[in-house]
Amino acid sequence: MMRNTTGHIFTLTTFGESHGAAIGGVVDGMPSGIDIDLAFIQSELDRRRPGQSRLTTSRNESDQVELLSGVFEGKSTGCPIGFIVRNADHHSSDYDNLRDLFRPSHADYTYYKKYGIRDHRGGGRSSARETISRVVGGALAKLALRSLWGIEIKAYTSQVGNICVDKSYKDLDLSKTESNAVRCPDDSVAKQMEDLIMEVKKDGDTIGGVITCVITGCPAGVGEPAFDKLHAALGASMLSINAVKGFEYGCGFAGVTQRGSEQNDLFVNADGNIRTASNRSGGIQGGISNGEDIYFRVAFKPVATLLQPQPTVDVHGNATVVNPKGRHDPCVLPRAVPVVEAMAAITLLDYCLIS
Amino acid sequence: MMRNTTGHIFTLTTFGESHGAAIGGVVDGMPSGIDIDLAFIQSELDRRRPGQSRLTTSRNESDQVELLSGVFEGKSTGCPIGFIVRNADHHSSDYDNLRDLFRPSHADYTYYKKYGIRDHRGGGRSSARETISRVVGGALAKLALRSLWGIEIKAYTSQVGNICVDKSYKDLDLSKTESNAVRCPDDSVAKQMEDLIMEVKKDGDTIGGVITCVITGCPAGVGEPAFDKLHAALGASMLSINAVKGFEYGCGFAGVTQRGSEQNDLFVNADGNIRTASNRSGGIQGGISNGEDIYFRVAFKPVATLLQPQPTVDVHGNATVVNPKGRHDPCVLPRAVPVVEAMAAITLLDYCLIS
Amino acid sequence: MMRNTTGHIFTLTTFGESHGAAIGGVVDGMPSGIDIDLAFIQSELDRRRPGQSRLTTSRNESDQVELLSGVFEGKSTGCPIGFIVRNADHHSSDYDNLRDLFRPSHADYTYYKKYGIRDHRGGGRSSARETISRVVGGALAKLALRSLWGIEIKAYTSQVGNICVDKSYKDLDLSKTESNAVRCPDDSVAKQMEDLIMEVKKDGDTIGGVITCVITGCPAGVGEPAFDKLHAALGASMLSINAVKGFEYGCGFAGVTQRGSEQNDLFVNADGNIRTASNRSGGIQGGISNGEDIYFRVAFKPVATLLQPQPTVDVHGNATVVNPKGRHDPCVLPRAVPVVEAMAAITLLDYCLIS
Amino acid sequence: MMRNTTGHIFTLTTFGESHGAAIGGVVDGMPSGIDIDLAFIQSELDRRRPGQSRLTTSRNESDQVELLSGVFEGKSTGCPIGFIVRNADHHSSDYDNLRDLFRPSHADYTYYKKYGIRDHRGGGRSSARETISRVVGGALAKLALRSLWGIEIKAYTSQVGNICVDKSYKDLDLSKTESNAVRCPDDSVAKQMEDLIMEVKKDGDTIGGVITCVITGCPAGVGEPAFDKLHAALGASMLSINAVKGFEYGCGFAGVTQRGSEQNDLFVNADGNIRTASNRSGGIQGGISNGEDIYFRVAFKPVATLLQPQPTVDVHGNATVVNPKGRHDPCVLPRAVPVVEAMAAITLLDYCLIS
Question: What ipTM was assigned to the predicted interfaces of this complex?
């Protein structure tokens, strides 16, 4: 049981709590000879860092990554890449009142039942700061995927509350995702999403949404046929991100109402290449990529941390009230976009290296 | 990369093709001293076997399981349990015309790209007959879960095409699931589902649906906090079943439109036990069970095998037509119910043994 | 913990007890397109089967293997290969007196402490019949190693009791290994070994020895640098064989008395290829193959089953006597030679497929 | 393939090169609630640090460990423990002449063949500085083993060149191991060993030896029966340490000349406990501990780095000479004693947590 490790050939192991000394990890199995673009890795971290817009928590950390090994004269050596990001902006005393409480829909109670002890400061290990390590690992994976196969991974916010992007990813210009704070490539929808988030924030409340992710350039033949189907691995990857409640690829849940004759993708000869005329399968058939775009959707619940008092119990079972003083995100989606991309990259690189 | 193995402490390894000598597997890590009820294992297989009703394929196999090891005087010994189910009703010649074709939305093309060779008879390894091994493994897991913790796992067909069960699982009598061919505990909805399936079958077409699964009796503290969250493992498990396109637990995709204040589950003291007043979380918080019911939904696409001609290409890229002569299921849901339960049992037992 | 599985990319999972229905296993990760020579696999099994000479147990089993999957029209498909060997020559009643005893230096007591239950018949799972599955897996691995890289693996009995082959493997004709019952390529030493074994057998006693194994044709660059060094994997492989007490490669234990200046292998340019002038390293440096022959030695203790009465205790701690009636091998070495080769092949193929 | 990770339930992942920013790692699966004695961890590191006596390299590093996570208010939380040790005393320019050379019997050539690139400074990743991470992980494992089961692990130098300790570990006072620089509990033998090492050092040469390790307090029933036998895991652990060429447990290689009737350990009732009258098995039977002391021996070759010129070739195959200017250890044994203990602790804790 590799609790804090993901992958088989390309692996990421993570450590670190919200208010500990550092968040960090180890990337193992990085192919050798890849140019390691440190500025790119930092820029990916900057996409998830707190305080980047009015939509996100005001916790302000620069989250500077330091690579400690595995890189020599700018290139990966094939040896493990250790890295750390020091935690800086601790307000640990904000959390003193939470030491013996179980915050609703957080991991406080379940950690307590599993371990008998927990670091209550800022959510400890269950804090979304853990995803810092995923973004660093994902940035390294992206560098390898791009360099070795030309694979690109693009995610975007496609729904916040009941505000949705109605278009398919093919009808959007995904290069515009970073042009607004909510990370939605359709500017007018983005504006509505931002308004909704600000409204929710004003109420001290939170809201959920959906992130869509698209992988282009993946060759056919990547995947495994039985338990480790490529989409099963991508699904587990996404479901391992804090606040994720669902995953679907290709036609997903909506496709269950279709008939086979409507949903099947017919093979055609496209200028000498075998392709499918449609791509309702989402680029994966029988657990293995077929060379078409891979796309999937990830459902995020509203964040559990509210700026409202909530009734709960303490470790002794006594009724009490949570009065959070910490900072929080009213909507996790904007900052989760790079995390979704990172996990997709980590999982896909692992599979590409096997196949 | 354990391609045909799932699990860490309790593992299932499977083998076998649709038209090979046998389907089988090895269960490793079965706790010792568990009563091995062979009749129960066979009855689980009978729930997934073909030919059990007019809703399923007419391929008629008795699918008798033989346990080859790991059981001594009726009890598990802790040693690996090997098992086989001989294949009997081969109509391999039905598939001769498929040797060089790629059937639409099947794994024919992707296997060919990955392996350069494939057993085309009846779908070979990608056939859903592979799930026989999962049901055997799952039956063993159920015996251990029941015996050691009193955990029960019940799945049912909750949607076929656009016919849905509207009620929550709590408002259904799940003991009625086996009372009809579609495995839906609401008899009137079941009737509509059956009618739809028969209509689709008449057209030589297929239809998708959703299976809901409920786990009761799981103690708090089962799960892992980072990449191996309990719901991530359950999700991967479900997504590894043929034809599955989506997974959601708790409020799932529908919950993304809610606010945190609506979705949070408040902790309460219920007669001295810490419980949640509602269970929108689906029994898992931070990747670890909280002692409430675990429930999730699994989306199945319409089966790709149609009894209609479909255009496609052959291995040389030449246009041709698939004229399937094999037998098939118009809707995979009824027979997939025991498979969903089996995979849930296998994954949950693995996690219970770790925690 | 993959208790009954070995390997990462190429894996073998085994099951079966001495007096159960069958011994078998699953090979996963076999490269596709390899010619599967069934006669070769059976011939490897014949090398380890009981009753092949007067030096071995008189238990007489033909040990016929049946492959159940993963092979299509004579070639591997990349899908898992399930196989079984039915047990035939049960004399289970011979073991009735052992039900509640702990045989000295067997696994009876430790299995009892670990599992609380054991199949006492013929040693159950701890019987060396489990190595049948290893030989089948090893034969498949040999076919792939030979076909893909021209790698050959040859083991031989180099010591029985205090009778040793003094020569290096390079000064022996390893094609003569199969020419005598003890599997020692030096005929005159083989004769002395056979005499010693017959003498020991006459006393109802047993004797240990050493098997030497040589791998030729392994390219440079196979291995891993840290915990999974190639020789660490080979060592674990060998130490997992029943009765093995030691493993050494290259200069091994004898080399500890040398100085670095005596033991270092100098690099030279041999007709344009970088080679080492000597090969005291045993073909592995820093855990990775260097292109020279890989060789190692494996120590086997005398088998614990004696045809003599031995004092012991029963499960209640009462003093009693073991009076074995079963058949046994006075020296395990001759039949262990193909097992050593098999395990070396399984481990090396796994590593070749990673590198 | 977990290249830089060892273990299943309790795992250690390591990173870092000799002249990189830091050496470090992640310990995962540490049981929660264990008192984390930082001074003890540092003292273990001090036992392996360079410059501690005239017998070791003069590279002078204080090797201070910093724990970054997984500890809260002095206790382990069950979350991963990340740690780093900054590298300080770089003399990287000492190694400039080695950039394109292959040092004899080092990993230079094999890394080059595997990765196509290498960090040549101080051996890069293949440097024994990697064992820093193992000692930290081992110290944590020792704390858990001691706290949960009272298990103790003691290693000592039992041979240097041809100077041997003749006594069994039972006839030695292992508390005296730390009383001399060579870490041999027999003071008069230690004196001879030191003299030999100083003589070898004077010649710019190196010498090998043997470390013996003893584990007391391990309960019966720890281990796995097939591929993952406890001694196979310990063997792999030891063989993964730099310069190790052999492993044996119990009677080991010497026992191959014995008869079964001499080597078998008879079970006896010792004051109500089932014990063995002798312990030639080395505390493990059938891969599972039997409650007696576990002991084994590990062979170390002479270190490959000499303070003598040695002929070799460069990456182009041209003949040249290695003139090392770096510092080195004439005998690795004294500093390897804590590494052997650490690896034994890591492996044993992993197995104790499974069983």
Answer: 0.97
Q: How far is CA D65 from CA C113, D68, D83, D136, D169, in A?
A: 39, 10, 7, 8, 32
> Which DSSP string corresponds to B106-154?
SSHHHHHHHHS----GGGGGGSGGGHHHHHHHHHHHHHHHHHHH--EEE
Match 């006596």 to its residue by tokens. D53
**D34 at the A interface (CB within 8 A)?**
no
Contact of B354 with chain D, judged by CB distance below 8 Å, is answered with yes
- Sign of the torsion formed by the C-alpha atoms of B228, B234, B240 and B244: negative
Burial of D51 (0-12, 13-18, 19+ CB in 10 A): middle
Query: Which residues of chain A from 268 to 297 reach within 8 Å of chain B, CB to CB?
Result: 268-269, 272-274, 276, 280-282, 284-291
Best of D68, D98, D132 to mutate (most A CBs within 10 Å, chain A): D68
Closest CA to C273 of C290, C251, C259: C290
> B202: burial class by Cβ within 10 Å (0-12, 13-18, 19+)?
exposed
- Rounded to 5°, the CA angle C291-C292-C297 comes to 125
Q: Kindly tell me the sign of the dihedral angle through the C-alpha atoms of B181, B184, B187, B191.
A: negative
Contact (CB, 8 A) for A82 and A26? yes
Q: In whole angstroms, what is the distance from residue A337 CA to residue A273 CA?
A: 33
Residue length, chain D?
Answer: 355
A115 contact residues in D (CB cutoff 8 A): 32-33, 77-79
Summarised one tens digit per residue, pLDDT across range C20-45 is 999 999 999 999 999 999 999 999 99
Q: How far apart are alpha carbons A79 and D125 in whole angstroms? A: 7
pLDDT band at B238 (very low <50, low <70, confident <90, very high): very high
Q: In this complex, which chains have at least 3 CB pairs below 8 Å with chain C?
A: A, B, D
Q: At what angle do helices A333-354 and A38-48 cross, to 10 degrees?
A: 140
- What crossing angle do the helices spanning D131-149 and D38-48 adopt, rounded to 10°? 140
Task: Quote helix, strand, coil % in chain D, to nearest 5.
Answer: 35, 25, 40
pLDDT in tens, A27-46: 999 999 999 999 999 999 99
User: How many C-beta neighbours within 10 Å does residue A261 have?
Assistant: 16
Cα Rg of chain A (Å, integer): 21
Rounded to two decimals, the pTM is 0.97
Which residues in chain D are contacts of B353 at CB distance < 8 A?
none
Asked if C266 and D312 count as a contact pair (C-beta separation under 8 A), the reply is yes
Q: Which residue is associated with the tokens 């001495």?
A: C18
Put simply, the chain D residues between 48 and 107 with a CB less than 8 A from any chain C CB are 102, 104-107
Q: Is C131 exposed, middle or buried (0-12, 13-18, 19+ CB in 10 A)?
A: buried
Coil, strand, or helix at residue A30? coil
Distance, in Å, from the CA atom of A3 to the CA atom of D289, rounded to the nearest integer, reads 26
HSE of B150, CA atoms in CB hemisphere, 13 A: 4
CATH of the structural domain B5-354, one choice from 3.60.150.10, 3.40.1190.20, 3.40.50.10140, 2.30.140.10:
3.60.150.10
Listed as ranges, residues in chain C with pLDDT below 70 are 1, 58-60, 89-92, 94, 326-327
* Burial (Cβ within 10 Å: 0-12, 13-18, ≥19) of residue A266: middle
Best residue of A11, A354, A355 to probe chain C, by most C CBs closer than 10 Å? A354
Q: Among candidates A347, C138, A225, which has minimal Cα distance to B6?
A: A225
The two structure tokens encoding residue B284: 């898992």
Test mutation, D101, D134, D245, D298, chain C, max C CBs within 10 A: D245
Q: Where are the domains of chain C?
A: 5-354
